[in-house]
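Hey,
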Amino acid sequence: MLRLFRWLGWDDPRMTYGGLAKLAAGVFLVFAAAAYAWTRARPPGDVRARVTVLAATDGFADAERWLAEYLEENPGDGEGWRFLVEMRGLARLLVKVVGEDEDFAGDFEGHFTEEEFLAFLDRSTAVRPAVLRAWYVCHQDGLEAGLAMLASVEAAPLIEEARMRREGGDVRGALDAYERVLAADPGSDEARLAILELLVEEGNFVEARRRLDDPRYLGAASDAVLVDVYVARGKYLAMIPPLVREDLAGMRPLTLVAALVAGAAWFLLALHLGWSWKWPVRARVLAPAALVLGFVSATACLPVVVIQDDLMGDIGPHTSIAFNLLYCLAGIGLREELVKLLFVLPLAPFLVRMKDDLAVLSIASLVGLGFAINENAGYYAASLGDAVFGRFLTASFAHMALTGYAGYWLVRALKKGGAEWAAFGSEAAKMVTLHGVYDFLLIEPRLDDVSFLAMAVFIWLSQAYLRLAASRSPRTRRPVPLTRLFVASLAVAAGAGYVLAADVLGMWQGLRAIAYGVVGEAVIAIMFFREFGETVGSGR
């Protein structure tokens, strides 16, 4: 182990770009080994997500081949079989709609011929092959054709008709079909949940609420349905428990572990930035407490999000650019920064008695880091690869900087009063504005061409935060260079993101998925090197 640390250059007082690259590679290889062991020890995590990405990167035929091989080994995976016929059926439909252009049709040429595909369905042990063929017809020829073929299947399960009508957009027909399922099988929780979801989709919240008075429907209801019904009726307090349960249930264990590991790297960096080895014991105890408070603050922010969206409306391509900017400023930026500052307040009685301004800044930053860890843990599937890695870097450090900066000025105002409150108001408003503009540039669909400006905002924020920290730091050299620890933290974030990507996509595809993000964040890292002010040589 000592030799490994020496090879990585951890004990070398001199820093070179080659040495830092070796350090990053060494740390990343540890995560690559963990990803390899993980992917070999268990079956693919999210089959649908992996196949979807394979279709986008390697083509439809390779995606279909991979899914077929998976189903040969797992013939009892009913959802996998249903996705296979859905994917191929929609591909055939797309070719029909667009036309028989050779190049276009070739893009959707499957691994099987049509005859081979229909024969392959006979291997399903989870869903009857005849039912799968009816679904295949439904996906490519429409609902009526699928229902007609399903009707020809001997003793076809009634619930398949209900599912097919729902998939085909026939809400009323699906409701009637699920009612018939319940009449035949009064214990079907699937039917009760589907009825509630369809009523919510239809906007019939009165009927949905009436049915929830029945304990059987209440027991079958998902937390998402309960949230929608309570919000529609303005029952915001009743909405909070199912909303929190839904959020916590959405955190996959692997994603939570990856977010915690990446967060631990930033936690150590924040402590090192704050010269924590010089803190008194009381201040050191506050550090993990701040992290926990930050984690809880993200969950506490959820009801604010739902209530605000219910009152203001959500954003999207259908709303104006001006409204979307207002939403990002008065919505996302304001609510998140205010909630995080509220969770800095329990620490305030201790922070105002501390003489070390840098310790105050660092501890307040950890509230923001805890918030980011919670957010990252719930961030999965829809944004793999470079997006996951990007969040582990930009979201983690941005929340640290935003909350640390505003929290520092809040503690100054609480400690000194007077004009410091005006300074706090000004600096907090600056953080809210930066947060809102950053998110606006990233999520506004009509500004895709200038979304790179969000990175300029991130760089400006990071510089302001690091310069504030530098102005409160001792004028002596740290025992371990901040640059070296920062590079190790980047490698940990990249490694954690890679484990998540490899879990869904496999080793090679996972590496390809994060490659773009690694290059982009490496460019941003140059700014951090300059702000740290530590000498990095060429090694010559």
